[in-house]
Each structure stands twice: as structure tokens, then as C-alpha cells.
Amino acid sequence: MTDKKKQRPFAVDREKRKTRRSALRIAERTYGRTEENGSTIENKRIIEKSAERAESLTIVQEMAQAFINTVEFYKTDWGGAMSHDDAFKKGLEHNEWKRGAVENLQPENVNWSHIAAVAEVNVNDSLTLWGRVREAADDELESGKRAAQVTGSRTEPYALAQFLAIRDSFADQWQPNGGIESAMIDMMTIAFSLQMYWSTIAHKRAIEIHNSQEKDLRLQENKGWKSPYQYEANAVEQAYRLADGYNRQFLRVLRQLRDLRRYSPVIIQNNGGQVNVGAQQVNVQKSE
Fold this sequence. Notes:
Elements: H1 14-22, E1 24-34, E2 40-50, H2 51-74, H3 84-101, H4 112-121, H5 123-143, H6 145-150, H7 157-174, H8 178-219, H9 230-262, E3 273-277, E4 280-284
Antiparallel strand pairs: 1-2, 3-4
Helix pairs in contact: 2-3, 2-4, 3-4, 4-5, 7-8, 8-9
């Protein structure tokens, strides 16, 4: 009996993404200027640019702005009120220190100054560093840690394990197909986790108020239960309201996921092979 490899419903299709991001987009732009005699000269240019190239240009702009901000800081009173030349030299020293620290940094702690410092020596290395940050963000989303941050479930190992257990149970049933459905599973997991959390808080607050008053009544040798103070009642009501709100969020997203599956287009292929029906893959054979 062979073991089946566990499916990864949240896996990022990096090859498909690479193809999409590297595809060239062609745009025609017209530039014109008016001469003194009133005539107009037009110049048309065809620009080919991929999504990956556009992102790289954005990163370069952010790196340049980071270095400018560093220089401008040293020119302020807080930075020592240096002259522009001294501030520029100080900025270069700052970049040298940043380059020495970037190797041991976790991706989430890399900032634009670190990337700019690396770019000072080699721009390609800085883009490689950006790629490491990008890949780490993909891994965080794929693993569920990104969604767990919302509920504070990354603070302790068992809390994270509890969150991921819920996420996996939902994913095992729905087998999300693509980014939208995966995001819905994350939203459901967050809502359900917070619903459980606030339900626990609400019950705990109500029980603690009751037990505290019961202890006071025993000391006074009286029987009965007094209504809690208003601030105590408000705290209990708030917890139940939050629990109910997250329950509503969970059910709303569940309905949206169900409707997305229900109204997905059905593809019919007469030649047989593998086809997508809704969000499921179905193998069909050609009839003789």
C-alpha cells in the first residue's frame, strides 16, 4: 500500500506566477510639444514592460528614497545639523554598517535602508535580497503564519498549532483552488478562532463574577445572587457581542465560498481528458 502525498491546497504555483510576471505588456505612448510658430511635433513610442520589470523599477525608487531620507536626517538638528557633504558621507558610513548587518536579518526585519545599502555595491544583489523577502512572504502566507498574526496566534507554539489545526481542517474539506478561495479559508479560520476566544472570555467573565459573589454571600451567611455591577455586566455583554460578531463573519464568508463554488463556470470538453467542473478536476474518457 503506497502512502498518498498530502495535498497542499495553499501552495503557490510559482511557475505559473513567473510566467505571468515575465509576460511583456505593450503600451503605445504619444509625446508632443508645441513650437513657437504654433506647430505641434508628436513622437510615438512603444514601451514593452513586464510586471517583474515594473516591480524592479519601483524597488529601485524606494532604495533611492531611503538613502535620500538618511542624508536628510543627518542634516536636521536631530541628526547633528551636518552640511550636505558631511551628511552624504555619514549616509555612506551608515550604508556600510547596514551591509554588515543584513546577512543575519530575518526577512521581516529587512527595510529599504538595508536594500539601498546593498545596492550601493551591487544593484543585482539588492534585487536578490528583495527576492528573498518576497519568497519569505509567500512562505508565510502559504504556511498560515500570516493569517495567524491577526489572532495573535504566533506568540506561543501551541496557540499557532491550534490555529493551523483549524485552517487545515477547513482546507481538507474545501480544497481551496487559487488565491481567492485560499483567502476565504484564512478569513474563516480567523473568524472561527476569534469566535472561540471571545466565547471563552465571555463564559470566564460570567463565571468569575458568579463565583466571586457566591463567596461573598457565604461569608455573610446569606443566600441568593445579586446582579453584577454595571461595568461587570458590560464586560460580559461585550465579550458575547464580539463572539457573536465573529460567528456572523464566519457564516458570511462560508456563504460566499459556497456561492463562489456554486456559480463557477462549467467547462465541457467532448474529446475527453481532464476538465474543470466548478472547482473540481474531473477525468473523463472519450466515448467509443
